[in-house]
Amino acid sequence: MLMDISLVWDSANKLVVINSKKSFAEETGMSQLNFSSEYGEFQSGTVVNATLDSYKDQVISLVNKKRASLGLEELSSSTKLEEIAQFRAKDMFEDNYFAHTSPTYGDFSSVAKDLGYTAVSMGENIAKGQSSPSEVVDDWMNSSGHRANILRDNYEDIGIGIVEYQPGRFIWVQLFSEPK
Length: 180
Description:
27% of the residues are buried. It is built from six helices and ten strands; from the N terminus they run E-E-H-E-E-H-E-H-E-E-H-E-H-H-E-E. Strands 5-9-10-8 form a four-stranded mixed beta sheet. Strands 1-2 form a two-stranded antiparallel ribbon. Strands 3-4 form a two-stranded antiparallel sheet. Helix 2 runs parallel beside helix 5. By secondary structure, the chain is an alpha+beta fold. The model is unreliable at 30-48 (pLDDT under 50). The protein has two domains: 5-43, no CATH class; 50-179, CATH 3.40.33.10. It has helices at 24-28, 50-69, 79-94, 108-114, 133-141, 144-151; strands at residues 5-10, 15-20, 34-37, 40-43, 76-77, 101-102, 106-107, 119-128, 157-166, 169-179.
């Protein structure tokens, strides 16, 4: 089986780090690894999709750098907003649409409410086709409506959702909120 993955030993944390454009489980069909070495037998724990998590963190970092360069406060990463954004990205992928309104669940604020999240105000940016965090943030910053969401001064929280719909191409959902 030919796989596009790299393995790196993190000696400080005694971990094998797997980097892949797809999750390890998607790439191999396995949810854990068994290792043999001169030191004995090892079994991996839960496999995490490090690439997408890293991309989410990079988007937030790039957004915060843009905001800071204009004297705006940094946004805080919100687990709940990330959950909602990930739900939205997955829904777009699974139902084969690309829009701010889901044919099944309505718009992002309806999804947020259904998932128990309320805010004073919210905003959403979506994008499709970009292959990296810097590309998607650049595209958003070059669009007046998306840029306005990123730079809105009353937003405090951010959450990112990402789904790979074809190798190296992603659906990106970025949610912002001013919490209650």
